[in-house]
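hey
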């Protein structure tokens, strides 16, 4: 059981904003290691990043659609970074913007040498949306290690959350690849320790 009062992991508390890039040539040099976070808009991605870094406002929550078309880089130290990938799912967004989003995401996932792991943040009440499945397929094609984070798990009773965890774990196991699934909550901080351990491994901490 996680202790909500437990002291944070100091390594992740150091995260600081580096840059927001709308094009691959605006991204920081492709050296060292980084872990990227993807998620459908409103899934809880920004809250998950803020919780993992013990910060209130590192990644922006409740963003406007225009702001979401950027890849945002946070430095943990000189060689390690966390990356906030553009969210997806605003009904109002035009086809042109969706294509731009897809191109940026593909360029990042296909070309980024320092990318060592991909976290796909999903609302536990609506997991494995078409977006999530597309991210899974891309991650598998790139042979990336992946973590599916079932966040907002405080919204379900403990038994129901574990049932959902089992269901999603079984579903992705059949798809193959290196995919791990964890329960998470930005509200209760459930899952923060196993996720830090996995990030430590991916980042070589
Ligand atoms: P993003 O668009 O994926 O970055 O999503 P946000 O992090 O902005 O979260 C969307 C909404 O869900 C906000 O109102 C958050 O307060 C809420 N939220 C995010 N994570 C949790 C969680 O773990 N538990 C609960 N109860 N609400 C959450």
């Amino acid at each position: 059981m996680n202790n909500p009062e437990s002291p944070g992991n100091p390594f992740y508390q150091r995260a600081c904003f580096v840059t927001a890039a709308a094009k691959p040539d605006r991204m920081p040099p492709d050296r060292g290691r980084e872990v990227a976070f993807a998620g459908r808009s409103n899934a809880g991605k920004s809250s998950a990043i803020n919780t993992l870094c013990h910060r209130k406002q590192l990644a922006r929550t409740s963003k406007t659609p225009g702001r979401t078309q950027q890849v945002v880089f946070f430095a943990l130290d000189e060689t390690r970074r966390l990356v906030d990938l553009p969210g997806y799912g605003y009904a109002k967004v035009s086809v042109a913007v969706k294509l731009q989003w897809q191109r940026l995401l593909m360029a990042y996932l296909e070309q980024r040498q320092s990318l060592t792991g991909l976290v796909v943040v999903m609302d536990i009440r609506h997991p494995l949306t078409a977006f999530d499945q597309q991210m899974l397929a891309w991650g598998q094609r790139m042979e990336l290690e992946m973590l599916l984070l079932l966040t907002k798990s405080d919204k379900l009773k403990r038994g129901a959350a574990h049932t959902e965890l089992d269901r999603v774990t079984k579903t992705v196991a059949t798809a193959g690849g290196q995919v791990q699934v964890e329960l998470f909550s930005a509200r209760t901080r459930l899952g923060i320790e196993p996720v830090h351990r996995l990030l430590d491994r991916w980042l070589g901490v």
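Residues 39 and 52 are 15 Å apart (CA to CA). Helices lie at 10-13, 45-52, 95-111, 130-141, 158-175, 192-203.
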